[in-house]
Automatic annotation (TrEMBL):
The keyword Transmembrane helix applies. It is found in: Cell inner membrane. It is a multi-pass membrane protein. The chain crosses the membrane at residues 49-68, 80-97, 109-125, 146-168, 180-202. Belongs to the YciB family. This is Inner membrane-spanning protein YciB. It comes from Polaromonas vacuolata. The keyword Isomerase does not apply. Keywords: Cell inner membrane, Cell membrane, Membrane, Transmembrane, Transmembrane helix. One of its GO terms (cellular component) is plasma membrane. Coiled coil: none annotated.
Length: 209
């Protein structure tokens, strides 16, 4: 359930982009009416309108997530605050300059921030972020937790690089598809592969590393 909540802004971004892409005349008119006062030149064309409208939706959705958690007295993860900051700054640049290049950097920056945070925690602070997150659900030897943490560091580094490769070597439509289906699919595949590997340690905690 949590993964659906985490991916909700991306799903809404995808939905708005696809709708606007299929109704470009409406999208250009709506984007000009709604965003003209903060867009350079005051007019949004049909080419850039879908991604600009989708960007507004993802900013609002991310903010709504935080307000929802706050209203229920729940803790807002640091990464969600960082995500809001990134999507607001890069999204504002995308809207103002009529350029999707800025918002395309957002997933990469977020992936790399998460990877650096995990690596810094393990190497400098001697704290394992993944163990802290998942330690209540499973018991593993400390060396295994260290490997799991580094595996996530590598995954986030690779995902950040892959996002840039898709973003700047393929069409915006292809990137939007990858952002949802590729990102979610690779995340699920990585988690499942990791579960298979870790299962042997859960069954036999004394198993040699």
């Amino acid at each position: 359930m949590k993964i659906l909540f985490d991916f909700l802004p991306i799903m809404l971004f995808f939905g708005m982009f696809k709708y606007a892409e299929g109704n470009k005349e409406w999208a250009a008119s709506a984007a000009t009416d709604w965003l003209g006062f903060i867009v350079a030149g005051g007019v949004v064309g049909q080419t850039e309108a879908p991604v600009l409208l989708a960007t507004v939706v993802v900013i609002v959705a991310t903010l709504a997530q935080i307000l929802w958690l706050k209203s229920r007295g729940q803790k807002v993860d640091t990464m969600l605050w960082i995500s809001l900051g990134l999507v607001t700054v890069l999204g504002a640049a995308t809207i103002y300059f009529h350029s999707e290049s800025f918002i395309k950097w957002k997933p990469t920056v977020l992936y790399w921030v998460m990877g650096v945070a995990l690596l810094f925690g393990q190497v400098v602070l001697k704290k394992n972020g993944i163990q802290k997150l998942m330690g209540a659900q499973m018991k593993l030897p400390d060396p295994v937790w260290a490997r799991v943490n580094l595996a996530w560091v590598g995954f986030f580094a690779a995902m950040g690089a892959l996002n840039l490769w898709v973003a700047f070597n393929f069409s915006t439509v292809a990137w939007v598809n990858f952002k949802l289906f590729g990102g979610l699919g690779l995340m699920i595949a990585f988690v499942l592969a990791q579960a298979v590997v870790l299962n042997k340690y859960l069954q036999d905690p004394e198993k040699p590393l």
